[in-house]
Amino acid sequence: MQVPFLDLKAAYDELAEQSEPKMLESLRSGWYILGPEVSRFEQDFARYCEVSHALGVANGLDALRLALVALDIGPGDRVLVPSNTYIATWLAVSQCGAIPVPVEPDPATHNITAEGIRAAMVSGAKAVIPVHLYGQPADMTAIMTAARDLGLKVIEDAAQAHGACWDGHRIGGAGDIVCWSFYPGKNLGALGDGGAVTTNCDTLAERLTLLRNYGSREKYRNEVAGFNSRLDPVQAAFLSVKLAVLDDWNARRAAIAARYLSELDGLGLTLPYVAARADPVWHLFVVRHPERDRLAADLAKVGIQTLVHYPIPPHAQAAYSDMSLTDEALPLAATLAREVLSLPIGPHLNAAQIDHVIQSLRQLA
Ligand SMILES: *Cc1c(COP(=O)(O)O)cnc(C)c1O
After folding, report:
1. Whole-number Cα distances in Å, 73 to 90, 276, 360
2. Ligand 1 pocket test target in 157, 182, 282 with most atoms within 8 Å of CB
3. Is residue 156 within 6 Å of ligand 1 at its C-beta?
4. CA atoms of 212 and 145, how far apart (whole Å)
5. What spacing in Å lies between the alpha carbon of 235 and ligand 1's midpoint?
6. Model confidence over 273-290: pLDDT tens digits?
7. Ligand 1 centre and the CA of 364: distance in Å?
8. 3-17 average pLDDT score
9. Predicted structure pTM score
10. Domains in the chain, ordered, with CATH?
11. Distance of alpha carbon 78 from alpha carbon 123, whole angstroms
12. Cα 224 to the center of its chain, rounded Å
């Protein structure tokens, strides 16, 4: 039996009947940049995230870059980032001329904590970017308190956490700016690149509106040196349809996670830990195993596709060799990169496929 890691075609097929007329309407409307379709999705997404403003941008990396620029972070500034995140979190900081300062995660949740932020604090730090990694919300209550104490702005990287809740509230409005990706493989994925920023601050929303559109409110009048980073209407049309099923699809992921958590217990795998106030959306189901590569190869032999998020932490990438950060300095990021394995958990797995994953792990783990 084959178990694909994520079946994007099945996701498209389920939504085709509903979304194709809307996308066709958008294509035939003659309006191809921003406009009413994007505004409609922005309002829906803001309401979904319980936040006052959502703005569509070109991708998740741009969302982070625009957020940093909107908060006046630039050359020479330092920004605290998780040591074990996807490299986009670091690249956004570097691309603004600022310097990423790694914060080691909590080994149980894989997310950074208020204590970790305090321990990693350096002079010149202006902001922190907590990542809700794997769809597990970080402790925003404690992180906001620590950040305010330390004088840090907070940008949340919510690229993996569409619909997640911390302490009963949706991710999307706790930090100064929250950044989203609609990359096809994300829980709220588009049919190409896309992203968004959300905020409760009117001033920041205004600034981000300018920044995504050449610094321009009125055509050919440029108030600030902005970017070209906008969500396409045809993507917005698709995303509006997908947003309506997001909670249902996240619930399917949660049902698979519940089975994995109960039926894979006691096998020598370290299973994900869910914090008491967290309501995760299971973008990824990440286990740890000391013989990760052997296990992944054995699972592949029985048709089960797994992935590693992420095999090389940002500090060990060639892109960051000039920072001379060592595995010894960031032991958790280094260990997690060696041991983590992501099991299939997409919303289109059937019961037989989930059974096959569980039975196989009982033999192979
Ligand atoms: C996907 C992702 C991004 C980047 O999003 P893109 O839309 O691919 O640019 C940023 N941060 C995290 C944690 C991600 O998973």
Report:
1. 14, 34, 48
2. 157
3. no
4. 30
5. 17
6. 999 999 999 999 999 999
7. 32
8. 98
9. 0.98
10. 8-240 (3.40.640.10), 246-364 (3.90.1150.10)
11. 8
12. 28
